[in-house]
């Protein structure tokens, strides 16, 4: 059976044969150095990029030592997005993904920028965890190089560098290091390029890489690919100088190091193939790549023709076909952490019953809230792998800080807050300052807590005969047949305790035992 999204793009030709009308997708990458927009067409089989836009913003340059993004950097970013908004205004919102990377992960006032940016683009922005960014980069590279077997992929961004080892289309080891071509400029005071400053930039990168190098040095790969604009610009300069035979080597980088030291100043970097926007970060990119070659024993690197944007577009195409990777991630985690899947399924069924009767009045009919509820039901006991004591804290921690392919950091934060409030004392303040509205998250929490209570005995029974009548301000009346209540005294006692927990926060939960006529 086709998904609803797929049905939207299916048409029938004059011979009555079904074919797919091309659908446009858009991916916007709010990088630390540049903002990128890629637009692609998907015909049901092939994804084809039809346009690209790129603007140098250097968002990371506006990040001060306290993690505050400057007003000037925010303005540069917003001005760029006003241009992008014109290009995507005719594309269906379901087919657009906008992501933030390193700088928006680090900025303490990221929400100031994000709220204004979302208003301009009329679309939500997902801030990617570092390893999620790495996964998407590998997806983009591997699908654009389908003949790859085992590959090391490196992407040097403005604020972070991603390193991924994978085989065919599957990433195996993913890391995101806090070193980038914009943030490394601090190693070059007054924009001067000396041997001392260059070596310091190399050392800084090597220190960052040293924390993860054992995972890569002990592995082998058939190809090494560089996927970023920084690496592409290095290759272009080498090619223009007739120094490369289709790849980059450490000897090439040693040559560029000496050439840059001779030039001596960022402002004087004038290789003809470099764009103006790339000149100010070129030396930093060379120093970072130099350190990576030395530390990871890379012999040669080819330039990839895809990166993060292509990974995002591929994922959008998969979602069009009804394949949401987040559901696959939840299932994978259940298997990995040996979660009692039968119990999780029973909790999910109970939650569905309650959700169906309360969602409209509580305003949580948006699919994301049903997703939150499903994932919380599936993963609320993931912390049992650590200890039953403080289960909800362990479960929330794993969700918030674990690798969860497909999940943005905002989604993980909201899901962790929901799971953290799965039972006993309610900490409503944990729902503050999340991307999703507090009141909607609280409604999801209420349903999860009740679903868990109804399955406290971990036996199979349904609640189809119970009525859940939602009211304003999270009020809820549960009507329970007396015969059901007589058989489930433990659950009735737990519901009464739950009523007391909610009452502390001014939330009314009433239990009405209904006698049969």
Describe the fold and architecture:
With 517 residues, the chain is α/β, with parallel strands linked by helices. The chain has three domains: 4-127, Nucleotidyltransferase, domain 5 (2-Layer Sandwich), CATH 3.30.420.40; 146-304, Nucleotidyltransferase, domain 5; 325-514, Orthogonal Bundle (Hypothetical protein af1432), CATH 1.10.3210.10. The protein contains 20 helices and 15 strands. It has helices at residues 4-8, 71-88, 102-106, 110-121, 130-144, 195-210, 213-217, 229-240, 250-263, 276-279, 282-296, 308-320, 325-336, 341-362, 367-379, 391-401, 409-420, 438-453, 482-487, 489-503; strands at residues 10-12, 18-20, 23-30, 34-42, 47-56, 96-100, 126-127, 150-156, 161-167, 170-177, 223-226, 302-303, 467-470, 476-481, 509-514. It has a five-stranded mixed sheet, with helices on both faces. Strands 10-9-8-11-12 form a five-stranded mixed sheet, sandwiched between helices. A three-stranded mixed sheet has the order 13-14-15. Helix 6 (195-210) crosses helix 11 (282-296) and helix 8 packs across helix 11. The longest helix is centred in the last third of the chain and has 22 residues, at 341-362. It is elongated, with a radius of gyration of 26 Å. The chain starts with a helix and ends with a strand. 43% of the residues are buried. The model is unreliable at 1-17 (pLDDT under 50).
């Amino acid at each position: 059976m086709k998904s609803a999204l797929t049905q939207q793009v299916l048409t029938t030709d004059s011979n009555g044969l079904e074919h797919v009308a091309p659908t446009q997708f858009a991916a916007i990458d709010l990088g630390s150095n540049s903002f990128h927009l890629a637009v692609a067409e998907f015909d049901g089989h092939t994804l084809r990029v039809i346009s690209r836009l790129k603007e140098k913003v250097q968002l990371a340059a506006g990040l001060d030592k306290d993690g505050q993004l400057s007003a000037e950097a925010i303005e540069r970013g917003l001005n760029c997005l006003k241009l992008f908004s014109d290009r995507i205004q005719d594309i269906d919102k379901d087919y657009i993904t906008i992501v933030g990377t390193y700088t928006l992960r680090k900025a303490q006032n990221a929400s100031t920028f994000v709220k204004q940016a979302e208003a301009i683009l009329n679309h939500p922005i997902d801030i990617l965890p570092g390893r999620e960014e790495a996964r998407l980069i590998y997806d983009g590279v591997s699908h654009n190089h389908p003949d790859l077997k085992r590959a090391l992929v490196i992407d040097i961004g403005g604020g972070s560098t991603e390193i991924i080892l994978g085989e065919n289309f599957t990433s195996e080891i993913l890391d995101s290091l806090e070193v980038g071509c914009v943030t490394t400029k601090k190693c070059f005071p007054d924009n001067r390029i000396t041997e001392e400053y260059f070596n310091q930039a190399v050392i800084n990168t090597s220190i960052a890489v040293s924390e993860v190098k054992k995972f890569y040095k002990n592995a082998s790969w058939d190809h090494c690919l560089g996927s970023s604009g920084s690496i592409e610009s290095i290759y272009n300069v080498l090619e223009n100088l007739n120094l490369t035979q289709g790849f980059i080597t450490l000897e090439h980088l040693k040559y560029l190091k000496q050439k840059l030291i001779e030039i001596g100043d960022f402002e004087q970097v004038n290789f003809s193939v470099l764009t103006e926007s790339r000149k100010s970060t070129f030396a930093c990119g060379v120093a970072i790549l130099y350190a990576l070659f030395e530390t990871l024993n890379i012999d040669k690197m080819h330039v990839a023709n895809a990166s993060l944007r292509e990974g995002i577009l591929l994922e959008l195409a998969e979602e069009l076909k009804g394949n949401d990777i987040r559901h696959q991630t939840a299932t994978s985690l259940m298997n990995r952490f040996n979660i009692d899947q039968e119990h999780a399924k029973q909790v999910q069924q109970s939650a569905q019953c309650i959700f169906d009767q309360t969602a409209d009045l509580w305003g949580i009919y948006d699919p994301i809230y049903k997703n939150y509820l499903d994932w919380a039901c599936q993963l609320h006991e993931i912390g049992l792998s650590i200890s039953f004591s403080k289960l909800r804290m362990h479960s929330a921690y794993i969700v918030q800080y674990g690798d969860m392919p497909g999940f943005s950091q905002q989604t993980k934060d909201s899901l962790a807050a929901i799971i953290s409030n799965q039972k006993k004392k309610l900490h409503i303040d944990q729902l503050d300052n999340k991307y999703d509205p507090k009141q909607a998250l609280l409604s999801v929490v209420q349903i999860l807590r009740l679903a868990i209570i109804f399955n406290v005995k971990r036996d199979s029974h349904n609640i189809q005969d119970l009525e859940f009548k939602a009211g304003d301000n999270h009020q809820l009346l549960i009507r329970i047949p007396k015969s059901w209540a007589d058989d489930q005294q433990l659950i009735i006692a737990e519901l009464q305790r739950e009523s007391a927990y909610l009452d502390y926060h001014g939330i009314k939960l009433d239990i009405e035992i209904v006698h049969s006529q």
